[in-house]
Amino acid sequence: MSKYYFNEIEAKWQKYWDSHQTFAATNNSEKPKYYVLDMFPYPSGAGLHVGHPLGYIASDIYARYKRHKGFNVLHPQGYDSFGLPAEQYAIQTGQHPADTTRVNIEGGVDKQGNTIAGYRKQLDKIGFSFDWSREVRTSNPAYYKWTQWIFIQLFESWFNNETLKAEDIKTLVTIFENYGNTTVQAVCDETVKVFTAEMWQAFSETKKQEILLKYRLTYLAETEVNWCPALGTVLANDEIVNGVSERGGHTVVRKKMTQWSMRISAYAERLLQGLEGIDWSESIKETQRNWIGKSVGATVSFEVKDHGVKIPVFTTRPDTIFGVSFMTLAPEHELVDQLTTADQKAEVEAYREATSKRSERERMADVKTITGVFTGAYAEHPFSKEPIPIWIGDYVLAGYGTGAVMAVPCGDQRDWDFATKFKIPIPNVFEGVDISEAAHTDKEGTVIANSDFLNGLKYKKALKLAIYELEKLGAGKGKTNYRLRDAVFSRQRYWGEPFPVYYVDGMPQMIAKEHLPIRLPEVEKYLPTEEGEPPLGRADVWAWDSNANAVVSNDLIDNKTVFPLELNTMPGWAGSSWYFFRYMDSKNEDVFASKEALDYWKNVDLYIGGSEHGTGHLLYSRFWVKFLHDRGFVTVDEPFQKMINQGMILGTSAFVNRIEGTNTFVSATKITDQSIQPLHADVSLVNTSDELDVEAFRNWREEFKNAEFITEEDGTFKVSREVEKMSKSKYNVVNPDEICEQYGADTLRMYEMFLGPLEQAKPWNTAGLTGVHSFLKKLWKLYHGGENESFNVSEENGSKDALKTLHKTIKKVQEDIENFSFNTSVSTFMIAVNELTAQKCNSRNILEPLAVLISPYAPHIAEELWSKLGKTESIATVAFPVFEPKHLVESSKNYPISFNGKMKFTMELPLDLSKDDIEAAVMAHEKTQQILDGRTPKKVIVVPGKIVNIVG
RNA sequence: GCUGAAGUGGUGGAAUUGGUAGACACGCUGGACUUAAAAUCCAGUGGGCAGUAAUGUCCGUACGGGUUCAAGUCCCGUCUUCAGUACCA
Fold it and tell me: TM segments (predicted)?
């Protein structure tokens, strides 16, 4: 037994880790804690490709490193197992999503006869140090019991704007009983009317509940939602990209529906502020800042002449209030009908009709066309009392601010364009600025003019004074506006968490905690009902018996003791917004995680995942954590202290080039001027030299059976290559299982890291694997220099050179891991092994620490070598080697000698030489004299220990 | 348009504070071993020019300037690519 039999070694240690529970974390330990988390996967039927484990490998290296550094490491894994693909598959095949999900995770054969490896087996093959004893699946009732519980907590809470915290709804009821809602600073719907304590006490129970619903952090309300007819469900803002659904690219329309919403907007400011204290990439923070979209300014109310109504607007530039020459309302604005004069009615109606037909997408794509119509009505300027014409225009969005703007054409380009198009005057309120060609949007350094009491003031002072005067007049006040909208929380789907909600007289009632979970009912079909109700409308046993506290048959509904249950389910992000807490205590049946576990593990120290969740998962998780914090359930205020976003691994697609209109294929280098059509060929049919296995290709598809091939001279057929996203449809998917089979998991792990910087997108190229693989073989050989390549380690201490190699490797690898620069450590290991091989080093005092150094990257081979070194315990928690600088101390330096900044030759000189001595030695060198060729240098720069530069 | 990241050999990439550009690999070329292939090992490999060769020499980090004894690295401007975002008042 001498060769590097990676298959045997890897299977052996994976079994060992599993049976010894090597990576199980304990919830109490003398060691400091460290929590390393991956974004958990959605277990799709397609399985893993080599792009998926990239982040997991990086986090695994870090987790293993931290164990070597003496930390109690929590490194769990689980599945985000509710979601659309399983449901779509269920609709197509009739299989229960729970069954297909289980097969996708655990492996097996599905009802279609497809063999599925299963995520768990695929992950296990790569040798991750996950603590699987804490696994969670969001679709397990034991898990979603707590998702339902958190929903109830949100329902039972309101947001106090004075303390900027969520509080128990009971405290709000007490306030209402004593003071009504006249004094309380609470986040609520704008439709809430003022009431006194007496009025509150006189309200019916239903009325009270109706009012409270407008204050709760999750609430049921008729809102305008994004309805996707193709998916048959509503979507949240972050699930829509460019006006179409993120999944499938289907059209999305606006529709009024009664839906559950999350009052995330209450947390806008705290979500913004919280970004300051966390270590995330600037780009992701910026994405969140943009999404929250804070803008500071003022609301100004414009009185409409002869109507007795006011139009509130939001503006960031109250300093330009004297530049207002018109107002624009969104076409959907609720006052439009009321304000439009008889003369303008026809035109306004036609315009509204036309804009409502334009899809969201058209409106966005077509920014340049300026459209609008005059309503015939006039508002009054709050200061000058001048009449201001009121227009409608679709550049004003109903969903932002108040859906109306005060137009200042001299200071806003869109207003300027609108005014120019419709020949509306453009009064100039800036001193010495030309606005004949474009609006003047700069704030700094601009002085206000033609503006009564604001004349001569700069932006900041004018802003403050304008707000002050508006407030004095009662026509406006300072206001901060956020773009962030409340998140719709209902989905008309089957495969999601059911709400723990039933309805009494149309009012939602929460089911008590003791009766959770409310399990998904069985249905025949996973489609909406004929009446357009969500799939749960098909369930026969979906009613709540409030006496028996049980889900019972719909036949029993009497609306006295048995009531209908909610038919919607929760969105995909519900379960993923808190899963990181469940790992801390995943089996607890009494609480979502015990106080002890929460206090010990606190939050995630390192989170690794893709950046595509910037406005979804990462924002919702922060919101839920802040909420749980406010209500005293957790001590932390942010879920993820540090985050790294791994880049995508791209596929290298292979194309066979077919001559247009024929069944003849041309090898890539033989293409001349034929018009050719490149077709994707499966990358598994192509070897690393870009040669196609022609026979396999013929058999791949019926249509290629009789294809002709114009080959190279040597009879091979070359494909052309292109880098694209890795995807099944492009036939460029590389399966990690095959790599593990052929080269081993350690090779896969190191190669994925070797590809390039973790955060960068980079193409996969299977050919490069052999470099890393032969490195591992060389590493193996270093320990097997005995007869017949037997294991042979000497007890004699390593040479000075070997110690130097070892310690510079320790230093570099430690720095690299801490900087998440894993690609450079792989080359450092290669250099170390090359050097030690050249030195013929086989000393225990070098090879032992070397095995520990490499174990985070290539844990299987490290364990095997460690046991061969005579150790009986796993290498996993052995202390990381300590860097000793003394081994790197040099007595001399090979100085680069440059002339005018260009290196010409090098010269070995002792490091303790003085500047003058170095200069003298260099000048005395024959090459120096040769290069100078008799000239006298103007200057000689000597940087001891670095460089010598001769100028002249 | 705005925001963020990035442009280095045939390819992936290295150069952490300005100090020997191209580490480490892949690929390619030549050689050793072999009946042969695979595997393994050795040597070479940024480009141009000169030379049998050792070597010499010039050019080179997207482009154009600048600072400096010295710039892939710092400053100013331009271009390109990728990602996110978009009529946000």
Answer: none
